[in-house]
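Instructor's aside before we start: the two examples that follow are unrelated to each other. I chose them only because their records fit on one page, so don't look for a connection. First example below.
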Amino acid sequence: MLPLQLIDSFLLNYNIGQALLLVFILTTVGALPLKSRRVIGANSVVFGLIFLLTPQALAKPHYMFLGIALLVVGPILYVTGNR
């Protein structure tokens, strides 16, 4: 486990939208070896909701638009994916 001071010192330099974007990229890269569009689609939908529901006081408004785009692309990836 990482000490909380290390995480806090990292997050002080960035806003919550940038931290969520980093986590989204890491989870997407982590899911790539599974070669499943359904997993990537579900990941996109979940992070789309997270980006959309994040208060604008904590993140810039363009992260809300990223959330809307992920909510459009995610279900398409999920439906077109193989089982």
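Example two begins here.
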Amino acid sequence: MSAIDDVSIGGEVIRLGQFLKFAGLIDSGGDAKEAIIDGFVKVNGEVDRRRGRQLHDGDLVSFEARTVRVRP
């Protein structure tokens, strides 16, 4: 298992699509949308196809070989 990086979002909540770009997991909003819809993104270990899913402190987001933790 790879190391989990913490990413501070500077607030309490961020949407999944925004977080993927903010954390540097994906380059563009279009790429984020496709990856989420195609089921390549996991939140807390489960595939989540909702681009607007709200993430909170401690949520784990995985894409490809990276996992990052949401921090305020």
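The mean pLDDT is 96.
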